[in-house]
Amino acid sequence: IDVREKLKRVNFIAILIDGTTDTAVKEQEVLYVMYVDPDTLTPNLSYFEVMEIDEFDQTAPGMLSAIKSAFSRNNLADLWDKLVYLSADGASVNSGKESGLIAQIQAEHDWVLFVWCFSHRLELALKDALSDFTAPVDESLMHLYYLYHKSSKKLRELRSLFDEIK
User: Fold this and answer.
1) What is the Cα–Cα distance from 64 to 66, expressed in whole angstroms?
2) Which of 61, 88, 124, 161 would suit a FRET pair with 28, their CA atoms being 20 to 30 Å apart?
3) pLDDT per residue over 112-131, tens digit each?
4) Bridging pattern class, strands 13-21 and 83-88
5) Residue 46 near residue 31, CB atoms below 8 Å
6) How many CA atoms lie within 13 A of 57 on its CB side?
7) Contacts 24+ apart (CB under 8 A), 70-75
8) 149, containing H or E segment
9) What is the pLDDT of residue 24?
């Protein structure tokens, strides 16, 4: 059965969003919906849609509009009233208490909670914990890049070496 058909029968939903950039360097938000399947009573996390966010509207109101439009396009506008929580990264556009996406949502539905995505928190913690080890590697790679990027002779020699290995 189509996810949209199940979503018409659920009592509540949670949405998870995450930003991405496509190959044309356009900002997009991936929208997932979490719900309890009305037939099996099992929790489900389903991909819902990739929303293109206009370059000049990467604001909380712009994202709110994109999410609502995604529901409307899928004939699920009433799903908005069943929202109980939003999960996203901790960027201020999402988590800002005054004008972030969660503040925009809570202006309409004060019961909706914000959960800072655990995966994003873990990524930041690991990045901080490993920075003493990764910083020298990043710096070395950057020096190598500039060494070969700025010297056509060295780049030609490197390509020649790779051709010999093939």
Assistant:
1) 5
2) 124
3) 888 887 777 788 788 888 88
4) parallel
5) no
6) 13
7) 70/31, 73/49, 74/4, 74/48, 74/49, 75/4
8) helix 118-149
9) 62
The Cα–Cα gap between 23 and 161 comes to: 30
- Half-sphere exposure at residue 95, Cβ-oriented, CA atoms within 13 angstroms: 11
The secondary structure element, H or E, covering residue 88 is strand 83-88
Percent of the chain with pLDDT over 70: 93
For the stretch 124-165, pLDDT in tens is 788 888 888 888 888 899 998 888 888 888 888 888 888 888
What is the distance between the terminal CA atoms of the chain, rounded to a whole angstrom?
Answer: 50
Cα(85)–Cα(133) distance, rounded to whole angstroms? 37
How many CA atoms lie within 13 Å of 104's alpha carbon, on the beta-carbon side? 19
> Is the Cα dihedral 121, 125, 126, 127 positive or negative?
positive
Question: Cβ contacts of residue 154 below 8 Å, gap of 6+?
Answer: 147, 148
